[in-house]
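Try this one yourself first.
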């Protein structure tokens, strides 16, 4: 087991044959990341953001344009994949059809000439961990998607790698199977304590599995931190809107001063929200920015509420929670409630917001506006 360090990592693909040159054609741009020994790090972002390219560079399957990759204390830029002591589990199971599960798990060790007794011992050790001990005699065609992925992961970790790399291993599974496999992966990683880098576009997977999350967009690292940090303290508008389900409400606002108290106001809406005093050092009368607040921090006020009366635009009953959408200008502000009352479009509610849970973002760059100490 070893840590992983990425220093100023770049990847640029050659687009010289294209008629139209791309100015910002870096698939990965100046990526710096430290994954401590035994840590589970998720690379999270939308499709095409550079997360799989990063994983392939770590594995040695892609040449790097610039930068350094260290596994432990070893610089591995020029090392062949087989010499990096890594385990790989991809989204495609890529099992060998003529071999049974035992043969698939043992394949790499047989190719290296490991003694038969040692192979059998390791297969028998790893099979219960991945709950495939009753599948060893089965052929791949007889397995479900979840079972195939267990075999795929078993094949990766049987080599006892210093670093385990997983590229969207649950993307081909249905909802129930994904949830079950998330539990299995978490249990496995806690047991083997292997340093793991996990690529996903699913923020729920990243939040539930990872010790730390690296959020990437257009090849650039947006934020690196624990699930709590990226959720409660997003670095910019992209992170705030990407993390959370449903995502954070983000609305353009003009701040006004009423007798020394600042309020968020919104175009074509009567809604006003008090600005937390911690932001008084960075706002002024007429200041324009974006205000963000999570749906669970938007509340339905009681009969004596001083909140603004708003008309419900959408209502979704999900059983354990209800989601209500209210128009604020041309934006649909979402709130989550456990209130068992069934609402319908056109109903009027009093809208309250936990002001202390609001975030400010620059209207041009999307960067977080932070209070001054």
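Now uncover the answer:
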């Amino acid at each position: 087991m070893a840590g992983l360090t990425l220093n100023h990592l770049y990847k640029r693909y050659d687009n010289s044959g294209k008629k139209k040159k791309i100015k910002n054609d870096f698939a990965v741009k100046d990526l710096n990341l430290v994954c401590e020994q035994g840590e589970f790090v998720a690379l999270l972002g939308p499709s095409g953001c550079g997360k799989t390219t990063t994983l392939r560079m770590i594995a040695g399957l892609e040449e790097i344009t610039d930068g350094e990759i260290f596994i432990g204390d070893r610089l591995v830029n020029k090392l062949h994949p087989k010499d990096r002591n890594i385990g790989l589990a991809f989204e495609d199971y890529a099992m060998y059809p003529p071999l049974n599960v035992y043969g698939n798990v043992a394949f790499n060790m047989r190719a290296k000439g490991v003694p038969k007794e040692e192979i059998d011992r390791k297969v028998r050790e790893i099979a219960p961990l991945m709950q495939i001990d009753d599948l060893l005699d089965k052929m791949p065609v007889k397995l479900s998607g979840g079972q195939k992925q267990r075999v795929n992961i078993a094949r990766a970790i049987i080599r006892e790698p210093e670093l385990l790399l997983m590229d969207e291993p649950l993307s081909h599974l249905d909802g129930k199977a994904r949830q079950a496999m998330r539990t299995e992966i978490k249990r496995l990683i806690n047991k083997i304590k292997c340093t793991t880098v996990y690529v996903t576009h699913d923020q729920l997977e990243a939040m539930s599995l990872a010790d730390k999350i690296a959020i990437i967009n257009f090849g650039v690292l947006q934020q690196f931190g624990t699930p709590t940090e990226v959720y409660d303290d997003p670095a910019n508008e992209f992170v705030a809107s990407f993390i959370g389900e449903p995502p954070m409400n983000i609305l353009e606002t003009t701040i006004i001063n009423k007798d020394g108290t600042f309020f968020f106001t919104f175009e074509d809406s009567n809604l006003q929200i008090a600005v937390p005093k911690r932001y008084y050092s960075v706002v002024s009368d007429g200041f324009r920015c974006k205000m963000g607040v999570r749906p669970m921090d938007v509340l339905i006020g009681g009969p004596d509420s001083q909140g603004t009366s708003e008309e419900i635009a959408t209502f979704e009953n999900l059983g354990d929670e209800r989601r209500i959408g209210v128009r604020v200008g041309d934006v649909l502000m979402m709130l989550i409630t456990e209130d068992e009352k069934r609402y319908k479009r056109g109903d009027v509610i009093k809208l309250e917001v936990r002001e202390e849970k609001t975030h400010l973002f620059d209207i041009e760059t999307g960067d977080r506006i932070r209070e001054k100490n």
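Discussion: The chain has two domains: 4-15+22-242, 249-369. The two ends are 41 Å apart (CA to CA).
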